[in-house]
From TrEMBL:
Belongs to the class-III pyridoxal-phosphate-dependent aminotransferase family. The keyword Plastid does not apply. It comes from the Bacteria. GO terms for molecular function: pyridoxal phosphate binding; transaminase activity. The keyword Transferase applies. It comes from Antarcticimicrobium sediminis. This is Aspartate aminotransferase family protein. Gene3D superfamilies: Aspartate Aminotransferase, domain 1, Type I PLP-dependent aspartate aminotransferase-like (Major domain).
């Protein structure tokens, strides 16, 4: 077996990759035909591929590299921690300093009485924890039948059996026997695609009231919790109308339903505050965290839990945990990441400077003939591609055909922008400078122009009837 180095020709790396490496959310045969893009290094907001091309990472990896690439401090901390204590668990009456310090820091940053952290290795595991935790909570209160979790279609909460069931991705539910029992889905607050003739405000209220209707239909004594992302990320950066969240909060309060806010993307500065719940004025009982917690430098996530929920389940043994819950290296790296976010004022700069500037430029793309709505909260943004803005039309081609063409034009212009169906989304590192915002927008506009030209050439600028 040859050593795999950056000096191996790209084609050889691609051949080895397709021979032995199975990729997530990928059609293997298609990838073999095209060859994967091999990323070899990264610094700041730029990736470098095996051909030496520099690419602006408009997605911060997978929504996670909040402090940007190449921060030596995190590497130093990881090396130090590996030498001192590379691993120990937190089961059976043991603990260690990195997990203690990180849990304390998260409790300090988290809003309200969210003062307790149950660690996992990522968001999927943390949401699996949440399913078991809310059911255990109600059982401990003498209500074992209060075990249904309500979620939303087109939500993303992870890819394990439990978290994939919580999510509302139809393509995922179609494979592997999902969802598990006692998960119920209501519709999402996507006004552009589903709002019909309603105003956004009317539509936001109507979609929130689906939660109330579901609680009444299923029975208040059966519903344990509602889970949602503050802004749907993988679903297409869908920002609910302003009327939506206050009504959701009112309904959860009225029927005593636990509110789980999945902050895996929105947490740690993405929306211009430490948590999306603060930006949108939501009061969670549990928050799911991962991604930006370590800026992706180490796999770590968790559930941040209120005093009331923690106190209630503390009375029994919670038969749950992961070998790597609170892993010392991951915890130490996450702590260093939070130190950098805080001491360098990155979250404040996002709120006061970078996000407003990006918003102005992003909304400027709305004058493009292909672009329908533009949405942005902090440093996560989307635009809807459409053949006809006035009627909010979808394309006649299969959903995602146009989005994929646009993504490929972005790639060709050395910009990573993702497509979700025919929506384009960005979620760049929070350290993006104003000059880098300009580069991102310029490349995005060029990609949109090229995409538009290609659609016209191929006769794809047609609206679905
Ligand atoms: C990515 C994501 C998850 C899953 O996290 P993993 O670390 O991939 O398991 C859960 N919820 C949301 C909102 C996410 O974006």
């Amino acid at each position: 077996m040859p050593a795999i180095t950056n000096h191996m020709p790209t084609a050889e790396l691609q051949a080895l990759d397709s021979a032995h490496h199975m990729h997530p959310f990928t059609t293997g045969d298609e990838l073999t035909a095209k060859g994967a893009r091999v990323i070899t290094r990264a610094n700041g907001v730029y990736l470098t591929d095996s051909e030496g091309v520099e690419i602006l990472d408009g997605m911060a990896g997978l929504w996670c590299v909040n402090i940007g690439y190449g921060r030596d401090e995190l590497a130093e901390v990881a090396a130090r921690q590996m030498r001192e204590l590379p691993y120990y668990n937190t089961f059976f009456q043991t603990t260690h300093v990195p997990a203690i310090a990180l849990a304390n820091k998260i409790a300090e940053l988290a809003p309200g009485d969210l003062n307790h952290v149950f660690f996992a290795s990522g968001g999927s595991e943390a949401n699996d924890t949440n399913i078991r935790m809310v059911r255990t909570y109600w059982a401990a209160k003498g209500k074992p039948d209060k075990n249904i979790l309500i979620s939303r279609h087109n939500a993303y909460h992870g890819s394990s059996i439990g978290s994939g069931s919580l999510g509302g991705m139809s393509g995922m539910h179609a494979q592997g026997g999902l969802p598990i029992p006692d998960i119920h889905h209501i519709n999402q607050p996507d006004w552009w695609a589903e709002g019909g003739d309603m105003t956004p405000e009317e539509f936001g209220l109507a979609r929130a009231r689906e939660l109330e209707q579901a609680i009444l239909d299923l029975g208040e004594d059966r519903v344990a919790a509602f889970i949602a992302e503050p802004v749907q990320g993988a679903g297409g950066v869908i920002v609910a109308p302003d009327s939506y969240w206050p009504e959701i909060q009112r309904i959860c309060d009225k029927y005593e339903i636990l509110l789980i806010v999945d902050e895996v993307i929105c947490g740690f500065g993405r929306t211009g505050n430490w948590f999306g719940s603060q930006t949108l004025n939501i009061r969670p009982d549990i928050m799911t965290i991962a991604k930006g917690l370590s800026s992706g430098y180490q796999p770590i996530g968790g559930s941040v839990v209120s005093d009331e929920v923690a106190k209630t389940i503390d009375g029994l043994e919670f038969n749950h945990g992961y070998t790597y819950s609170g892993h010392p290296v991951a915890s130490a790296v996450a702590l260093e990441n939070l130190r950098i976010l805080e001491e360098e004022g990155i979250v404040d700069r996002v709120r006061e400077e970078t996000a407003p500037y990006l918003a102005e430029k992003w909304h400027g793309l709305a004058d493009h003939p292909l672009v329908g709505e533009t949405q942005i909260v902090g440093m996560m943004a989307s635009l809807a591609l459409t053949p006809d803005k006035a009627s909010r039309a979808k394309f006649a081609s299969d959903a995602g055909t146009v989005g994929l063409i646009c993504r490929e034009r972005c790639f060709a212009n050395n910009l990573i922008m993702r497509h979700v169906g025919d929506r384009m989304v960005i979620s760049p590192p929070l350290v993006l400078s104003l000059a880098e915002v300009d580069v991102l927008i310029e490349r995005a506009r060029r990609a949109l122009d090229e995409c538009h030209a290609q659609l016209k050439e191929q006769g794809l600028m047609k609206a679905a009837s």
